[in-house]
Design goal:
- There is one protein chain.
- The chain has 221 residues and is of the alpha/beta class.
- It is built from eight helices and seven strands; from the N terminus they run E-E-H-H-H-H-H-E-H-E-H-E-H-E-E.
- It has two domains: 148 residues, Rossmann fold; 65 residues, no CATH class.
- A seven-stranded parallel sheet has the order 1-7-6-5-2-3-4, covered by helices on one side.
- The chain is globular and about 60 Å long.
- The relative contact order is 0.21.
Amino acid sequence: MSVLAPPLPWQQIETVLIDMDGTLLDLAFDQWFWQEHLPDVYAGRHGLTSAEATRRLTPRFEAVQGQLLWYCIDHWSRELEIDIRALKVAAGDRIRWLEGAPQFLARLAALSKRRWILTNAHPDTYAIKDARVAVGRHFDAVYSTHPFGVPKETAAFWPKFCEHTPFNPATTLLIDDSLPVLRAARAYGIRWLRAIRRPDSGGVVRDTRDFEGIDSVADLL
């Protein structure tokens, strides 16, 4: 069962690491894009029904889930011979904030904490979303895991990231919708962790297991 999150001791927190998709931005866009829109486009290219396209694509997606390739739009553009970036740009009007996220970020800025986006999204994916909702203007820095060669859910990522961009895990808060990411961060020693229970506004509230859960970042206000 999810553990409801108590108030945070903001006076003890220096750095706030915040995921993008499913934490600040509605994961409904990504779910629709990968589960519906891309299979429809693939089906049209290959003379398949959408169901047939999904059956072909699902094993290919599952084979790299949890790896950096899963998040790499260059990889999928090559593999599927479809311009994924162009598809995302064309569908950009579907990109949305999760409820309360801009208000939370405005309040967070007033607390004078270091505010970093830390995302597995490809840099081009980040750029597309930033162009739509200006997510980056709320942050001191934006980091994609792609230059580090491994995603956040792997143990190898965290020492690489800390060496590149030093921070103190004991005074750091990570907010993310991925339980594997939170587990890796906890193992590295990040003290404050919060799990998003509703990353997709149209989805169900998820069980965040042994992580303290919030429905949205707005709950931290």
